[in-house]
């Protein structure tokens, strides 16, 4: 399959001082090279979904054009090739987050399904009436609703860690909420609406001191910062392919082997079985026990290509460059008197959420769209965050390594135009 055009020898020092050749990188992403309403697209909705490099698109096309076949159950050549590519992607995913072995990697539709899987298996087996599940005030709905459903079924209670005005966890409150009743902590690694990077290693350590397992929602983290699940020592870690420059409809659940061995199957069907009779069914070994039915083979292969692409650029270089973009954007928008940034944590990923005085975020998004600028306006599936700040919604610009300061300049210019239009 075709290799990315961005390799080590292509790198040069960019004007922002990082070893990323952004001009060359942008050529790898065909969707960036288009006009919207007659103006060059500025894509700043990366927290919702990132654009795909040509190498990912090619990998998916090549699979369907050459080795399209089902995995694991065929002895013919195409099936063997598809299986090899599929399982190779599992190893790639394992190494990307430094899991101890590939069997700890479960392919799912995305972070939402991963959390539901844990709630429906580990949760049902280990959480009962009077027990408590601890989440934070900054969670995405997909890390709230599955636990609410579990609480309704079991009689458990959901407890919430508050956040301060800057959008950071109240760590003293977290410590006080960790009790003998707490059976699981489930916290987002990076907030999609605030950009806050939570101190997950510290949180895991605090929880494990009381033998409490921890799930980490990494949907907004793996594309921005290096994740090492062994060093973090979390029990579960999840992420979605489409946010890390891969296809939609595919993601990863990492879980420690000791948990996976004990957890019951999530769904029944083909592949997750060893033997079936009307009297008794024996389940397959992990990870296959949790992958019933024909998987998203092309998506998994595309995900592996995306992870390799990110690795070639280097997450340290990506993180440094995106941090500079965020610093530059924050400084520029703060010059607009009518604008207020929502989320001012000391440690942030590349998310800039803001409100304009007396202007609804949907109006902001509409005007920016006509200027060719794609941002997200709404509650970002974090309504409790909006309630915390007593606002209905925000406008959110989220940056990736292919964005530029020039694009930020266009964003700032267009925000000023919004203020003038509605002023």
Task: Characterise this structure.
The protein is of the alpha/beta class. It folds into two domains: 8-52 and 314-418, Aspartate Aminotransferase, domain 1 (Alpha-Beta Complex); 58-311, Aspartate Aminotransferase, domain 2 (3-Layer(aba) Sandwich), CATH 3.40.640.10. The protein is built from 14 helices and 17 strands. The chain has helices spanning 22-26, 54-67, 77-97, 111-126, 145-154, 171-177, 200-208, 229-232, 257-262, 297-313, 315-333, 361-370, 383-389, 405-422, and strands spanning 35-36, 39-40, 42-43, 105-108, 132-136, 157-161, 182-188, 214-217, 236-240, 251-255, 273-276, 281-283, 339-342, 351-356, 373-374, 376-378, 394-398. Strands 4-10-9-8-7-5-6 form a seven-stranded mixed β-sheet, sandwiched between helices. It has a four-stranded antiparallel β-sheet with strand order 13-14-17-16, covered by helices on one side. A hairpin with a 2-residue loop joins strand 1 (35-36) and strand 2. Helix 4 (111-126) packs parallel to helix 5, helix 11 runs parallel beside helix 14 (405-422) and helix 12 (361-370) crosses helix 14.
Structure, briefly:
Helix 8 links the parallel strand 8 and strand 9. Mean pLDDT is 93; it is low at 1-17.
Write the layout of secondary structure elements.
Elements (H helix, E strand, L loop, with lengths): L21 H5 L8 E2 L2 E2 L1 E2 L10 H14 L9 H21 L7 E4 L2 H16 L5 E5 L8 H10 L2 E5 L9 H7 L4 E7 L11 H9 L5 E4 L11 H4 L3 E5 L10 E5 L1 H6 L10 E4 L4 E3 L13 H17 L1 H19 L5 E4 L8 E6 L4 H10 L2 E2 L1 E3 L4 H7 L4 E5 L6 H18 L1
Parallel strand pairs: 3-15, 5-6, 5-7, 7-8, 8-9
Antiparallel strand pairs: 1-2, 4-10, 9-10, 11-12, 13-14, 14-17, 16-17
Helix pairs in contact: 2-10, 3-10, 4-5, 11-14, 12-14
């Amino acid at each position: 399959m075709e290799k990315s055009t961005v390799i080590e020898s292509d790198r040069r020092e960019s004007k922002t001082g990082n070893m990323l050749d952004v001009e060359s990188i942008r050529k790898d992403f065909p969707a960036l090279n288009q006009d919207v309403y007659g103006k060059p697209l500025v894509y700043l909705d990366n927290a919702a979904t990132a654009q795909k490099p040509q190498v990912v698109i090619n990998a998916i096309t090549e699979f369907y054009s050459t080795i399209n076949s089902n995995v694991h159950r065929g002895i013919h050549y195409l099936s063997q090739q598809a299986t090899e590519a599929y399982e190779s992607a599992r190893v790639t995913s394992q190494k990307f987050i430094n899991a101890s072995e590939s069997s700890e990697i479960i392919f799912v539709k995305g972070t939402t399904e991963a959390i539901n899987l844990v709630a429906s298996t580990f949760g049902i087996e280990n959480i009962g009436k009077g027990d408590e599940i601890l989440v934070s005030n900054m969670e995405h709905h997909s890390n709230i609703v599955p636990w609410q459903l579990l609480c309704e079924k079991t009689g458990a209670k959901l407890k919430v860690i508050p956040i301060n005005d800057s959008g950071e966890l109240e760590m003293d409150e977290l410590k006080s909420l960790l009790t003998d009743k707490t059976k699981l902590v489930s916290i987002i690694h990076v907030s999609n609406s605030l950009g806050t990077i939570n101190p997950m290693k510290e949180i895991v350590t605090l929880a494990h001191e009381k033998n409490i397992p921890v799930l980490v929602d990494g949907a907004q983290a793996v594309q921005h910062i290096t994740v090492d699940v062994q060093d973090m020592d979390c029990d579960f870690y999840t992420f979605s392919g489409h946010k890390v420059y891969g296809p939609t409809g595919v993601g990863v659940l990492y879980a420690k082997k000791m948990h996976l061995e004990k957890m019951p199957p999530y769904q029944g069907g083909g592949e997750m079985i060893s033997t079936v009779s009307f009297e008794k069914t024996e389940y397959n070994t992990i990870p296959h026990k949790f992958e019933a039915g024909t998987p998203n083979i092309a998506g998994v292969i595309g995900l592996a290509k995306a992870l390799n692409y990110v690795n070639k650029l280097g997450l340290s270089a990506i993180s440094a460059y995106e941090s500079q973009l965020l610093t530059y954007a924050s400084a520029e928008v703060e010059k607009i008197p009518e604008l207020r940034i929502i989320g001012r944590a000391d440690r942030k990923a590349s998310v800039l959420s803001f409100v304009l005085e007396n202007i609804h975020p949907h109006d902001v998004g509409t005007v920016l769209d006509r200027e060719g600028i794609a941002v997200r306006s709404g509650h970002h599936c974090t309504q409790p965050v909006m309630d915390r700040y007593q606002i209905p919604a925000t406008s959110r610009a989220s940056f990736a390594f292919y964005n530029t300061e020039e694009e930020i300049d266009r964003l700032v210019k267009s925000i000023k135009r919004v203020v003038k239009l509605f002023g």
